[in-house]
Write a structure and sequence with these properties.
Elements lengths: L1 H12 L21 E5 L2 E5 L6 E4 L1 H9 L6 E5 L13 H6 L2 E3 L5 H6 L4 E6 L2 E2 L7 H6 L4 E3 L18 H16 L2 H20 L9 E5 L7 E3 L4 H9 L2 E2 L8 E3 L2 H7 L3 E6 L5 H10 L7 H4 L3 E5 H4 L5 H18 L1
Parallel strand pairs: 3-4, 3-6, 4-5, 6-7, 6-8, 9-11, 9-13, 13-14
Antiparallel strand pairs: 1-2, 10-12
Helix pairs in contact: 6-7, 7-13, 8-13
Length: 334
Amino acid sequence: MRKRLIAAALCLAATATGCGASVEPSRDPGIPSSVTLTNCGRRVTYDKIPERVVTNDVGITELMFALGLEDRMAGFAMPDDKGDLRDVPWKDGYEKTTWLSKDQLTKENVLDARADLVFAGWGYGFREDGGLTPESLEKLGIPSYTLTESCHNGRAKSSRGIMAPLDALYADLANLGRLFGVEERADALIADFKKQIAKVRATAPKGADRPSVFLYDSGRDAPYTSGRYAAPEQIITEAGGVNLMHDLADSWTTVGWESVVQRNPDVIVVCDYGDVSAEQKKEFLLSYPPLRNVSAVKHRRIVSLDYAGLVESPRNPAAIARLGAYLRTVQADR
């Protein structure tokens, strides 16, 4: 009888989750119950560790997987044109997580998944037209985190990027590490990425030997490319090249073919994704009359890199290594 009374007293003293249920703290012991982060220049406070995160696109989703946070995810939205996901380091993460939509993330996806955090970006799920924004989610009582590569930079409503791309990657890993209580894992990833990149940089072309590189994403009438705030800027730089469009204070944007012809790149990097294959993009570049005298086209110096390595993601170091190896062969041939 006495044992039953003690058990009843303990049950009454427990929290409202019910007697017999396991009660987990909102954050690991020793970690504050709320965390305040700087995201896109704003101080944002999160009251607890999110348990049903919804992400948009491959790079953002794989940042979560790289930190071992797939168990904290309710699902992701991603077109199915981003390459074969069965042969990536985070294959298990994809297998454990629900593919919510093969289109852009919507409010309906978020609500159906009962999300308690949306991790997306401007141009990566968040849209200026108001379809899905941090503000619209806030009205629904759902917190959000914005990919730093995509932060609006104030020059124009659609211009994006507030820091060097790899700094953006490291900032997001550090912030996510704090938010989810996995700082040691985040620090280890950042240190490993820096080590991999330093190894490429040590053997990369330098000074006048650095080839100019144009990033071609898509577009026939006008090419979609990368300014200095998108991941290709530092992928190209650390690999030993010079981004042809470094002077553009934007991340991903459209330019005119005349500027490409005038600047005469030594190398063109094709972003491999979408309905048009990398080989089809290469064939277009080689056959497009205005480009016939461009050095990269004349010498057929065109290389493709996966989309997932060219947006902010844990695949950036591998993309740097691959491009670095290619640029060393270009240097040897010039």
